TrEMBL record:
EC number: 3.6.4.13
Positions with biased composition (Basic residues): 12-34
SMART domains reported for this sequence: DEXDc, DUF4217, HELICc
Organism field: Psilocybe cubensis
GO molecular function: ATP binding; hydrolase activity; RNA binding; RNA helicase activity
SUPFAM superfamilies in alphabetical order: P-loop containing nucleoside triphosphate hydrolases (SSF52540)
Residue ranges of domain Helicase C-terminal in the record: 301-459
Name under which the protein is recorded: ATP-dependent RNA helicase
Length: 868
């Protein structure tokens, strides 16, 4: 429970008893008088509010019939002028009428409902004894926390208690406080759970219900939950329903939950008895939005190019799945773009999510166009698309097309908020152009113009860098594979087939563009989970064929990679955290015909944990921690959906052998277990090594209990099959030692060496050196830093009209750019030299570490064998 106001003032003890006596009588009289006066004041306020006719020139909060505590709170938080939605809705809400509010993103809807909530409860003299007076339902935890923050900022002069119920904490802990709350900000699942289970939690006296981002609540599969919730609430309540976009579902919900509502905001604020959904959602007038056409394989390179030329901008980049965010973030961080990169997706622990959210809110922004601010980039799924109020975002990039026009509106709504300028750029594949433009047009999205990609940007190709990164770090390779699969999966799962077609994707080229050595083999439709209802029959056969044939056309090395036991789940899109308790009978929808990403989100088992931020807000003095050990909680990867499975998934590996998306997302205990098991495994294997003078990598089946098939390289270091499986093949392909050596040199000099570059093992020269070390065989580790563009080049980038509609610019894109050679030459570049040296040193250090590690492991193995 959080009292919005501070503790009530205590009277100081009076030393002089006589004086005290003398003063006592008048005090009693004064307090009675005061009470009567206050009562009259409140009644007057009520009358004013109920009969309030807003003046034509209504501009400020001060013009509204609001209570003193609310006015003081608004003043303290520096809210003076009303936004249009606030002007239109607050007077009506204050009259206790139901409101259906539709207003564009960033227009101030949060205050539009919080101000009436506070004032109406005040007018009704709500106190702790009255119980729950107002309930605000938000679709996501982040948004709930954000609303709660605003409530605290303006509610400090009221004496209501307020709470945040967003799951992640044990139900019991929350239950203890629930019954004492006057205002509750909650996510639907956990709220319903309390309504069903928590003794003493009574919403029977509820005065106001607020449904914020109603369309999103519905999209996320909370329709039944909401219906069940409404059943717990008194019919006499007032309901305020706000949303940036109005859909049929929203109007259904409005019919169900509102009584004679007044529709305010877009498209008009006319008073109506029946809500009419808007078909013309307006975007912020200060938004400039552009789209560019790009082939799928060029997307990442173009994004890189964009980031390098907008280093001072605060940017959000939207991807369609968690795995893509994880991969792009990990890979780009390795390439040092020169701007802080953050990642936010639903598979991250709640605490981490909140931390990232907080960091992005607090960082950079506002001056991106002038190049003076500190840039920051957030890679995110649609978890960040709605409701979240990140201040001063300069650019919203939609690297993957939004699933529909609503999502488009919400994504771009993260910029150009409340009159600030903002720019949005949508990447579209040629196959998506027609359908997406039509969908946006039908939804009334106007002003989107086609931009042109500058020649210089088109020349950037990250493939070689990515291959190099994957070669050095197998984790990145896994992430790449997963990103690839999850992208295809997200396309396949898209409902609007007139926009998204798996059949039209250049699958092989896309895999190459991610730096993958081949097309990961995937198949659709088999091995679906119980409860999943999309079977093979749902998948267009030609799509399956296309992907499978592309896969078989690629190098068959992947097939022989036995090591990873890739899990099949690729959670696409965002996922939200609320999973209603399995016992809460109303909550689980019977399987729909098509399971969307929201259905899967809904089914997530991971309840995650309370964040530090939440802990701070709730401030009940308990140790929140990360809650990893909380009963019923599972690691983020628990919820796997094998709708698409890798063919090699049937390699029978234990969980510990599976690659991790993000090992840091596992519990410390699990990470430790993984490490020690891997070390033991390696040590045992080391003890079975043949002489380290073998000339070629050879495959052995280690004769030990773990039965894991490994490959040993020239130095005798064991590798999982996926790391080196194709060495022989590649060796043959290159025509022996010389061929391999030439290949390695070419690659190091920045000459694209094709997808099999990862297999460019140096020939064994008997040196026994690590493959990624420099010098021993002429192989030079490529430098993955693209040179930063100087300010002239930045200007040049803009001149290239990449993100400017052609009609508005006549500047030439000619002139081309000199593509800088990568690799050794980059030592000369500013900053590049430093990184190069850093890389070299790092390589040496790694090598030394590896050697030490091997020695340690051999010693351990000998010890173990000795014991045996
Ligand atoms: N009257 C006001 N004066 C100044 N700033 C305001 C006012 N009302 C809201 N704001 C600010 O405008 C920003 C956007 O407000 P808010 O998050 O409520 O928008 P929203 O309409 O809910 O957006 P979305 O649909 O994206 O959730 C916030 O930073 C908020 O502090």
């Amino acid at each position: 429970m959080i009292p919005l106001a501070g503790p009530s003032r205590q009277h100081a003890p009076n030393k002089n008893k006589n004086k005290q006596k003398q003063k006592q009588k008048p005090v009693v009289r004064t307090s009675k008088l005061k009470k009567v006066a206050e009562k009259q004041k409140i009644e007057a306020l009520e009358r004013d509010a109920m009969s309030y006719e807003p003046p034509v020139d209504l501009e400020k909060f001060a013009d509204l019939p609001l209570s003193e505590p609310t006015k003081r709170g608004l003043k303290k938080a520096a809210f003076v002028t009303l936004t249009p939605i606030q002007k239109a809705s607050i007077p009506i809400s204050l009259q206790c009428k139901d409101v259906l509010g539709a207003a564009r993103t960033g227009s101030g809807k949060t205050l539009a409902f919080l101000v009436p909530v506070l004032d109406i409860l005040y007018r009704r003299r709500w106190s702790a004894a009255d119980g729950l007076g107002a309930l605000i339902v938000s679709p996501t935890r982040e948004l709930a926390v954000q609303i709660f923050d605003v409530l605290r900022s303006i509610g400090g002069f009221h004496s209501f208690s307020a709470g945040l119920v967003i799951g992640g904490k044990s139900v019991k802990d929350e239950s203890d406080r629930l019954s004492r709350m006057n205002i509750l900000v909650a996510t639907p699942g956990r709220l319903l759970q309390h309504m069903d289970q928590t003794v003493g939690f009574d919403a029977g006296n509820l005065q106001i219900l607020v449904l914020d981002e109603a369309d999103r609540i519905l999209d996320m599969g909370f329709q039944r939950t909401l219906t069940a919730l409404l059943g717990h609430l008194p019919a006499s309540r007032q309901t305020l329903l706000f949303s940036a976009t109005q859909t049929d579902k929203v109007s259904d919900l409005a019919r169900l939950s509102l009584k004679a509502p007044v529709t305010v905001g877009d498209p008009s604020s006319s008073s109506q008895s029946e809500p009419t959904p808007s078909t013309t959602p307006s975007l912020p007038p200060t938004l400039t939005h552009t789209y560019i056409l790009t082939p799928l394989p060029s997307k990442l390179s173009l994004l890189w190019s964009f980031l390098k030329t907008h280093l001072h901008a605060k940017t959000i980049v939207f991807f369609s799945s968690c795995k893509q965010v994880a991969f792009a973030h990990a890979a780009f961080c390795r390439m040092h773009p020169g701007v802080p990169l953050l990642a936010l997706h639903g598979r991250m622990k709640m605490g981490v999510r909140m931390e990232v959210f907080g960091r992005f809110v607090g960082m950079g922004g506002g001056k991106g166009e002038e190049g003076q601010g500190h840039g920051v980039v957030l890679f995110a799924t649609d978890i960040a698309a709605r409701g979240l109020d990140f201040p001063s975002v300069d650019w919203v990039i939609q690297l993957d097309a939004p699933e529909d026009a609503e999502t488009y509106i919400h994504r771009v709504g993260r910029t150009a908020r409340l009159g600030a300028p903002g720019r949005a750029l949508l990447f579209l594949l040629p196959s998506e152009e027609e359908g997406m433009l039509r969908a946006l047009e039908e939804r009334g999205v106007s002003g989107l113009v086609k931009g042109k990609v500058g020649k210089k940007s088109l020349e950037v190709d990250l493939r070689v860098q990515l291959q190099g990164i994957m070669w050095k770090d197998v984790e990145i390779k896994y992430l790449g594979q997963k990103a690839f699969i999850s992208y295809l999966r997200s396309v396949h799962l898209q409902k609007d087939k007139s926009i998204f077609s798996l059949d039209k994707l250049p699958v092989k080229e896309y895999a190459e563009s991610l730096g993958l050595p081949g097309v990961p083999k995937i198949k659709f439709g088999k091995g679906k989970k119980e409860g999943g209802n999309r079977g093979a029959g749902d998948v267009p056969k030609k799509e399956v064929k296309k992907v499978e044939s592309a896969a078989s056309a690629s190098e068959s090395e992947e097939e022989s990679e036995g090591g990873n036991g890739e899990e099949s789940s690729e959670e696409s899109g965002e996922e939200e955290d609320e999973k209603p308790n399995a016992n809460a009978t109303h909550t689980r929808a019977a399987p729909e015909k098509v399971r969307t990403k929201y259905d899967r989100m809904f089914e997530r088992k991971n309840q995650s944990v309370l964040s530090a931020h939440y802990a701070r807000l709730v401030a009940h003095g308990e140790d929140e921690g990360e809650g990893e050990g909380e009963a019923g909680e599972k690691a983020p990867d628990d919820d796997d959906d094998d709708f698409i499975v890798l063919k090699r998934a049937d390699h029978d590996l234990s969980d510990e052998d599976k690659p991790l998306d993000d090992p840091s997302s596992l519990s410390k205990r699990k990470q430790k277990m993984l490490r020690s098991k891997a070390a033991l495994s390696k040590a045992l294997l080391s003890s079975t090594l043949p002489s380290t003078s073998s000339t070629n990598p050879s495959t052995l089946t280690a004769p030990h209990a773990l039965n894991t098939k490994l490959i040993f390289d020239a130095s005798g270091t064991p590798h999982q099959l996926y790391e080196l499986a194709s060495a022989d093949q590649f060796y043959e392909q290159q025509g022996g030692v010389d061929g391999v050596r030439t290949f390695g040199e070419e690659w190091a000099n920045g000459i694209p060496a094709g997808p099999s570059a990862r297999a460019a093992l140096p020939s064994d020269s008997g040196s026994g050196s690590d493959y990624d070390s420099e010098g021993a065989d002429g192989y030079v580790s490529p430098d993955f830093d693209l040179p930063p563009l100087d300010s002239d080049e930045e200007a040049e980038f803009d001149k290239m009209d990449m993100y400017v509609p052609p009609s508005s610019s006549t500047k030439s894109t000619k002139g081309g750019s000199k593509k800088r050679p990568r690799g050794v030459d980059e030592d000369e570049d500013e900053g590049g030299g430093g990184k190069k040296i850093g890389n070299t040193n790092a390589n040496k250090k790694r090598k030394q570490e590896k050697e030490t590690e091997l020695e340690d492991e051999e010693a351990l193995a000998l010890k173990l064998l000795g014991r045996a």
